Q: What sequence folds into this?
């Protein structure tokens, strides 16, 4: 079970946070605190996996609490939920390694997205000691963002495989037959990806009439 605490001086917001968290069966809210000082006392004696943290609070605010948490190497992930939307607060919290930053008022979908991001990381870290690049990308959303930019039928790993070969081969001119053989992919697949790279202005294509037979389409690295 994942142990979570809420550090929030507004009882209504704290209750909303607790209600939203209760919808995740793997998360248990163990305590709610109205200031950072009381939360710090609890953290010094109890393991906590996740902290839902406000910034503007009496006694000890969220910025100071996050700073102390990192200085003391308390191994808790932090999601900030605050009305503070200025660059200074955001920049400082990012330096303390928070995994997400939500501005009040927030909706449930955005809150759930932050929690799912935390759960993905927690799940990966609990299963293994080393991660593949695509697993790391999934934590930082890099892979998903990249995939969303690609048109239907174009997969990021295959695209990167083709681009890496083109760059590392030292060649500047290719045809489908050659690349299909070198990369062990079908000619249809290679042609689709090369045409995509032409559309993306990564390659240009031209017709080679000097083949001694049927004209061949040549792709040239720009």
A:
């Amino acid at each position: 079970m994942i142990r979570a605490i809420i550090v929030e001086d507004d009882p209504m917001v704290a209750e909303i946070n607790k209600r939203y968290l209760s919808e995740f069966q793997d998360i248990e809210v163990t305590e709610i605190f109205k200031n950072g000082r009381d939360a710090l006392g609890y953290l010094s004696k109890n393991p906590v996996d996740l902290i839902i943290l406000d910034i503007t609070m009496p006694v000890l605010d969220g910025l100071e609490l996050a700073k102390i948490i990192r200085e003391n190497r308390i191994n808790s992930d932090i999601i900030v939920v605050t009305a503070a939307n200025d660059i200074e607060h955001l920049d400082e919290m990012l330096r303390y390694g928070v995994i997400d930053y939500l501005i009040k008022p927030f909706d449930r979908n955005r809150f759930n997205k932050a929690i799912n991001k935390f759960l993905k990381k927690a799940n990966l870290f609990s299963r293994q000691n080393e991660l593949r690049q695509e697993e790391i990308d999934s934590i930082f959303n890099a892979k998903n963002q990249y995939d969303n930019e690609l048109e239907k039928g174009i997969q990021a790993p295959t695209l990167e495989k083709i681009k890496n070969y083109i760059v590392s081969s030292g060649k500047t001119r290719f045809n489908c037959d050659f690349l299909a053989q070198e990369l062990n992919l079908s000619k249809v697949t290679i042609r689709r990806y090369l045409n995509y790279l032409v559309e993306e202005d990564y390659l240009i294509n031209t017709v080679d009439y000097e083949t001694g037979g049927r004209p061949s389409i040549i792709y040239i690295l720009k």
In short: Residues 121 and 139 are 6 Å apart (CA to CA). Confidence is low (pLDDT under 50) at residues 142-148. Strands lie at 2-7, 27-33, 50-53, 77-82, 100-103, 173-174, 203-208, 216-221. The chain has two domains: 2-143, 156-221.
